[in-house]
Each structure stands twice: as structure tokens, then as C-alpha cells.
Fold each of these.
Amino acid sequence: MDTQHREFLDPAVLTRLSSLPLYARKMMMGNVSGRHRSPHRGSSIEFAEYRKYVQGDDPRRLDWRAYGRSDRFYVKEFEADTNLRLIGVLDTSGSMKYGANGVSKLDYGKRLIASLGYLASQQGDAVGLTCAAQGLGVQVPAKRNAAHLRNVFNTLADIKPKGETGLVEALHKVAEQVRQRALIVIASDLFVPPSELLDCFQHLRFRKHDVVVFHLLEAAELEFTFDRPTRFLDLEGGPSLLVEPSVIRREYEAALKEYIEGIDAAVRDSAVDYHRIRIEEPYGDVLARFLVSRTPRRSRR
Amino acid sequence: MTFLQPWLLWGLPLALIPLVIHLINLRRHRTVEWGAMQFLLQATRQNRGKTRLRHFLIMLARILGVAGLLFAISRPMSGRWFSWFGDQPDTIILLLDRSASMAQQDMQTNESKRSLAVEQIATALERTGEPPNLVLIESTRNTPQTLESAASLREIPETRATDADANLPAMMQSALDYIVSNQAGRTDIWICSDTQSGDWNSEGGQWAAIRSGFQELKQPVQFHLLAYSQSAADNASIRISELRRERGTDTDRLVMDIQIRRSQADGSAKLPVGIVVDGARTVIDVEMQGESFALDDQFVPIDKEKEFGWGKVELPPDVNPRDSVFYFTYGNDILKRTVVVSDQPGSAWALKLAAAPPVEKSTAEAKIIRPDEIGSIEWNETSLIMWQAALPPAETAQKLEAFINAGGQIVFFPPQDDSTESFQGVKWGDWDKLTLGPDEQAVKDWRDDSGLLAHADNGSPLPVNRIIVNDFRRLTGSGQVLAHLQSGDALLQRIPTDHGGVYFCATLPQQPFSNLAQAGIAYFVMVQRALADGAERLLESQFGLIGDQLVDEDAPAWQRIDGWEEGTLSSEQRFVAGIYQEGDRLLARNRPSAEDNPGTLTSSELERLFGGLNYRIVQDQVEGASSLVSEIWQAFVLLLLIALIVEAALCLPDVRTKKVVTP
């Protein structure tokens, strides 16, 4: 049992969230039975459809009442429940180091993915991890045992923000490498061109993955609240800039607006589950809202 | 632009405080590790245009605001007269046109062009600080006069009104001479004039020399012309062109030709012309059409027994009262007096006979005196001196030159004795005999277009070719030769003078020297012409024009009995119109005829006159004249306010658009 203290795991939050199951919006193709719908017919109590009897079908599955009404042989089929693969994609570029009140965007992303991984693992789902940074291709494949979850946590604990973002490459890579349907949870500041993101999202959607995006932003990035000359050091290693914030505030806001509109268009076109997050907000609330939003309206059991 | 508190301008660097604060602010920047660099880079790229300009304007407005405040509290003075940021010159030379035309005034304030110019200049100098040297060159004397203060301009008689004309080229030359002789430093020459064409003589050849003289000066000279070129809309002038006394059986008549001129050519005007003779006033109403009007042969009866008297013709006072009156004197017929000075009185009969022919009721009179009797000459009443003796020594020569300057005429004839003295650069040489070939005339050529030997009025030539010269005396010295002998020597030579006339005749009229006396006509005409020229000055004294040399005009004993009040000052009365009396002698003074000419120089003519010089022309007018200098701190306060408003407007926060980012 993993007794190591993890900064990105808060037991109180996990306890509060444990009553909220994690559902996928799409059908999953797991190996074992689970909470998630499968595209295949199975043995759950959820009626799926009637099918004509064909040779080879088990006669025990014939619906005699239907035969009595129609004088034809029908087989009654039920939904199959399966588990899912949760692949956390965490942006570990330098820009994720930015944050406030001692919490960086990377820390926030770790908490989101670790918590969701824990919850998924608790309901029998497989959990994997991909770190998106240029030249830093850490990948932990999805597995569903507890030892593997510890491995994922260890990897998260070791991640340091560095270099330029490799999110686009990482997402394409995930889309190619994860062959079966999976829940892809992306935690990033998405500082890449929206058009490239759109390609990634559509690629993932093509591979029938359920994509969740947590867009992590800090208040200063959104409102540019600086009021005196400031030298901005690029966390991703680019050149620094000495600017008078009041001089460029209008242009900054215009650029941000243009970017946000691009992101909105990309997520709208690709139909991903997009959540724009201010990292000042407690991540427990964010996850609770997220889990509730994915709960099916009608009870499944 | 000058400042009443210029020491405050040392604070001008404070205007850079906004810039310094900005730079300090930039240096005290904080450093932030930042992730969203893409937005910063994009914003910086887009910021190169309007926003950068906006912030530059904000900075400029702040700097201008502080500078405007500093300028305002420094109490700047400026005006049409001064160039911005002009420094105070070392010397200011004021050329003041005091001519009669400068008396044009504003009917409401009674301020004339001259008085306004003086007041403007005095006020300007008092406000801006007086230069180390303030020099006045006024138009009557054309001599530099150093002033102690600008305030004295209002008080000294040399800035008061006159009826003289002005000679701007001479004033400019005088200013140039002053600068050269006094090694003046940076000099400003301020010219106050109405730019009347006659006073400026823009076609005169001396302007080129004056321009080049100023251009060659090492020190910078700035010209400021305060021009009152605006002519009066409704001004009329009056003068007498001819005046004579006609004898009658019971009373005499004073007959005069009056000329009236007005500035307005359109329409008709009814002018009451007042004629005052010995205090008795007569008014004639004149219906005037056009610009000028001649009232010829207007007569006024006078007492037959009255030997002399005075009078004036006048118009109602208008915008220029000084050209609305004209003074005159009258007397008996003028006697043309000739004095023959000869060291051989016995042989001078031919000279006397030509000057005063023995006819009944002759108006010519001649007498023969010896050179040592020169003190007996009545200079004021003599028209012609015929000098046939050794050229006068220096003391006597001075008297003769004064006589010439007063309009008198002198004809020198060769003495038979030696003569070593010279007169106006001309000396007598040796006697010589004129030898002629067959059919040769004594006089080779002569000036028949002008001068003493000119053709008669009907164009007939004088019989100069009949003159026979046997002996003649050579002349040394330059002059205008009016007649050459066959030998090439001068028979008659004129010495150039400003006034009067000086002639040298190389032979004597009687035999055996020549046949001038016997041949008669040419000789007689020559002498009578000289006599007539000499008598003309006495005629002019009926209505003497200022500027012409008048009889005893420097004598302080003349008393004003009518005319402008400036004439009470002995130093000024030479230039002031009026009637003056000394004993039983009367003298009339009037403005020169050119002063009635309303023509002024055009801008292009002024530009031509000052071409190549550093000059400014400020047009002023007597009506509604504004000060040449004034405090302009209000303008800088306005600048400050504008700068603050602009700065505030540019700094207004943008109207926030709806937040595009939702959590």
C-alpha cells in the first residue's frame, strides 16, 4: 500500500469526491467489467435490444413471451459494462511554472490528474500518464492495479516544468499510441496556436477518445494587472521583455481575446469537454463540478 | 521674446522632470517570470503604432505643461516687433521720420503716426529693457544723437512734429557711419516711417552703396521697419504755387494761384478755403472734383501803403492738419542786386553794365567795390557777385561759400595780377594768348542745352560763335565746362555745388581781352541768367519751403508770429511751418511740395531696398494701433491648460470591453 505523502493529493478532497463516480461520455472498450458502457452486448441488467434468433444462439436466451406474442424467435440482449482507460496528459512546459500563492499551474494540473487517476483507479479503471514537454517524452501506459497507480504518482512527483511546450506532439502521439478508446484528460495552459490544438482534438476524436481539457490560467495572465514597468522573463527560455504595462495593456488584452476566441472555436468544433480554470479556484470544486457534469441524468443501476 | 523675470528660465530643465521620472520608473522595474509570452510579444509588435504615439504625446504634453508654467511665471514679453527668442542688441539706432506726412493722425485720439511711433518704441524699450546704447537719428538733421533713456524720446524736441521732408537714404548712411565709427556691436536699426516715396527716394543710386555698406559690416545688424503706410482715406492739402503783388491806383492786389489736392479721387467735395492776409480772413467755398484742383489768380486786396505783410491759406483741419495750411509773405518788388568786386574798379564797367543795364525803373542794381570792402556787402539782399580780383583768402571764401549755400551766384573773372589762392579746388593759371587758324572760331563748343549759355526760350542759339577771345587765363581744377576755346581750355566753367552757382569765366569782357562786351548778347544773357538764378531765392522767401536754404535761417532772433507751436523752439523753428519775424523782416516757412504726395512704397519696393539685409517689416496704423510688445504669459497659461487637458484625455482609461475570459 502506498503510504507516501503526495503534495498533489488531498485526502479531504478525495474523500469528498469519492461519492461522485467518474463517467465517460463515450462508450469504452475495457478488458473487464466496469462502470462504463461498452459498444458490445453483455450481461448487465440494462436491456439493450431484441435480436432474431440465429443458429448457434443459446436457447436459454430466447424470450418466450415475445415468441408467444409474435410466433417468432427473438433473443433479448443487454448492455455490457466495462472499465475505461484514463490517460492524463500533463503539460510540463516552462510556462506551467507560473502561478500564484505558491501554487503553479503545473501543481494544479498534477492535483487534477492525480485526483482523477485515484478516483478512476478506485472504480477499477486503468490509469496512465503522458507528460507533454518538448524533448521530454515521459509516458506511463494505462494499467489498473494499485502498484501502477503508485508508479503514476511517482512520475507526477518527479515532474519539473521546463522548456517549451510539446503538447501538440504529445497529443498526436497519444492519439496514435492509445489504440482503444480512452478518457484523455489534458491539463495545460494551452499556450499553443488554437489551430494546432484543433488538429490534435480532431485527431483524438477520430480515434474515438473522450477528451477532457482543463485549461489552466492564472488571474494575472487573464487581466494583466501589472501597473509599473516590468521585465518579463520567459519561463520557456525565450528572450525577456521590459515593458510598460500601461502602454501595451490594450494590445495584450486584444491578443488574449483573439487567443481565447480561437480556443473556444477549436473546442466547439472538436466537441471536447473543455473547462477553463482559474488556478485560484480550489481544485476540489473544479473536480466536483466536472464529475457532476458527467454524471448521466438517469440512474444506471 | 524677452522676459521680465528671465532668471526663472533657469528652471526650464525642470520641464524634463516627467521624462526623468519615466526613465527612473523604467530603471526601477521589477522582474516577473512569465508564461504567457506569446501575448506580450504580440502586444509589443502591435504597440509600435498609435499607442506608442499616444504615449509619446502624453510625455510631450507633460513636458510642455511644465515648460508652459515656467514660461508663464517668467512673464514673457513679445509682440510684432520682436522676433521670438531675440537677444537684446548692444546698440539700437532709431531712425525717426519726422516729415510732415507723419503728422497724419487718428481723428479720435489725435495720435499722429509720428507720436504713435515714438510712444510705441519708447514703451517697447521700457518693457523689454533698454540697450547699452540708444541712438536717435531724426530726419531733419540726420545726425546721430545718443539718448540716455527711452523715456526721453517722449520729451526731447528732436522727436516732435516738423513740416520738413525726410531723406531716408541719408539717415541710413548716417546710421552706417555711426556703426563704423563707433565700432558698435550687435545693432538693431529701428526705422519709423510712413514709407512716403519722396522721402525714401527708392530710385536713388545711394541705396546700393548703403546696402553693400551694411553687408560688409562684421557685426550683425537687424533692421526693423515700423511702417505706417496706410494713407488717409480723406485728406486734403493746400499750397500756393505762385504769388505776386499787383499795383493798383487805389489799392494793390495780392494775386495767388492756389493748389488743392485730396487723397480721395471719387465724388465731389465742398471745401471752404480760408485766405488770411494780415489777420483779415476770407473764405471761398470750392466745389472740388477729382484729386486736384487749381484756384488760379485768386486775389485779395491789400493796402497800397503797406510795404510788407504775411498771410496763409488754409483748409479745415483733417486727418493731417499740417498740410491743410500754407503760409506766405509779401512785400514790394524785389530788387536784384549785383556786387562787382574788382581790384581795378576803373576797368570793371563792363561787368557792372551787364548786371544792371542803365534803364529807367530797372529792378536791377549793381555796385563796384574793392576786395577789401567785402564787409559792406548786404549778403541777404545780393543776388550775384562778379569777382574780378585775386581769388579770396580763406576767411573771405567762407563768407562767399555761405552766400552760395544760401542760393547766391558768383561769377569769377580772371585778375590781371597773380593769384595763388584757390576757390573750391579751382585756381587761376597763367595768362595765355589764343591763336586761331584761318576761319577758326574762338569758341570751339559750348553747352547749349542747359546752363548760362543754353538756347533761348524760342530755341534760338546764343551767338556764342561770334565771341572773339584774344587773351585768356588758364584754369586748374575740375568742374563742368560750359564752353571750350579752340585751344581746348575752358572759357566758362561751372563748379558743382548743392545750392547756388559758382562760375569761372577765363577772359575779361573788355578789349583787348575779348569782345564779350562789344558782341554783347551772349555775355549779357549769361550775366542776366546768373542774376536771375541768384534772385530766385529772394522770390522764394515769399513762401519758403523747408529744406531750401533760407536767409539767416540759423539766426536765433526769428520770432514765431503764426504757425505750429513747435516753431517757438529756436532749435526746431527751421523745420516748422509758420510765419517768423525778425525786426521788420518776415519769413514764411512751409512743408516741401513732396510731402503732399500720398504715394508710399510698395512691399516689393521695400523688399528691393532691403534686399540682402536682415530686416523685418511691421505694418502699423494709427487707428486701433496695438502695442508693439505686450506680456504674453496668458498664452503660456493657455498652453499649460491645453497640455494638461490633452494629457488627461490621452490618459483616460479605455472603456473596458466585456471580459472575454470566463473562469
Amino acid sequence: MMYGNSSSVLTELAAGSENQVLAMGATNPNWITSSSTTPTRQYVTTTVQFSTNSTSYIDVTSMSITLASGSGKSIVSFNSFYQQSGSSGFWRWECSTDGTQQESKITSTSGEKMSICLPYVTQTNSSQTVKIQTKNDNGNTNYFAVDGEGGSTIWSWEFT
Amino acid sequence: MIFHFTKKSTCGSNCHDKVLDALVKLIPETIPSVNMHLSISHGLKPQAHEYFITYYTDGYHENYRDGKIIKTKFNENQSKFTGNLPSEKEIKKVV
């Protein structure tokens, strides 16, 4: 690359190395190694319906992700098209390092189909596995990706 | 005791409840959500349904995770299953 230096003399800057970026120094441009790295982003999505009538928490099939190693955090989110046959449907994040997180619930007896969303910011990455669990306190049935009319998705986005 | 298997099944509305009804009919001691629970991953054609049929025979709630059985203490609604368990073959016939 050719550029005019501080003395207005045409100067050549040889090509940098892979993944280097061009930056401006005090007087002249130069190549530097970027300090940022691409964050890990993952997702799992399915239209396969999952149902259970367990009154203790169990794992929702396929709704699991293993986060990146090292420090930093991730924002994770779970979305699903959901229905319950009666009252008291619950779901929550269960993280192998952070532990179980605050649950979401629908206490009404409405059997309407609806979209649900449960975000969470992890305390660490540390290669921990994060997954969605569910239960129904009254022994009714919880349906995720109900009737295949909508999906279930879990995703993570690492940041530091 | 967890019966975990896949089977090609016709899925429709109330699929889960129909399977529960069939299990109650097969084993009268079955009390859904009390001494057993059912989970289904309703795979669509050509995939098969994946069934997790759990009877609390050991006095614990059981959960199938990554090929291992996780046992947790009963909550106030759950109790031990004391009926006679059928074979997996018999269960597969009715689900």
C-alpha cells in the first residue's frame, strides 16, 4: 500500500499478516494484530414437539448448549411456542456452573398457545452446559414447539 | 424405572394424554404425575417418537439425562409406584 508520510513523501507499506488490521500510528499508518476475537455464537432450533407431565424438573430434549471455555459471559435465550393443558407450567435455565436460575411460570388454567421467551446472562462461560428444564406443579402437561406450529430455539452469544 | 425407546407413532392432538390413558388402562396402579410421569419428543415422519416413561419404583423421582438416571427426592405430590410393571414389549404395544 502506498501512502504519503508526514513529510509528504510517497511511502510503501508492505502487506500485513493474516488477520492484521490497519491502524493509524502517531504519524504513519501500520498493521496491528486485532485484540478482539469473534465471539462464540451458537443456537439449536427444532420444530419437534416435546411434552411432559412431570411435577419435578426434567430436561427439555435438545434444548442444551455448551458455552465457550475461559472467562467472559454469555447472553442466552430460550424461545418456544408453548401450551399447557392446565395450570402451573414452569421452565427455567439449569447451568452446570452457575446452577439453577429463576423460573418462569404460567399459573393460569388457560390452554392457549403462546410464544414464550426466557433470557439469562451467565456469570461465566467456563465451558459450562446450559439447558432448559420444565415441570408442571399440578401434573398437567406442558408442550413446547406445540403441534409443530412453532419451534423451540435456544441460543447463546458470548461477550466479555 | 425408566422405559426409554423410540417408536413410529401417529401424532395428533392430545397425543400425550392418549398415551397416558393407554398406560393407565394397561397398569391400573398408574397415577400420572404422582407415581410416574411421561415425556415424549414427538418426532415427525419419518422420525419416530422418543418416549421416556418413568415409574417411581425406587421411591425417587427419576430423570433421564445423557444416558444416566438422575434421582431426586419426592415432592409433596409424588409417591412410590407399587404396582406390577409390565415389560417394555407390553408398553410398546399400547403407546
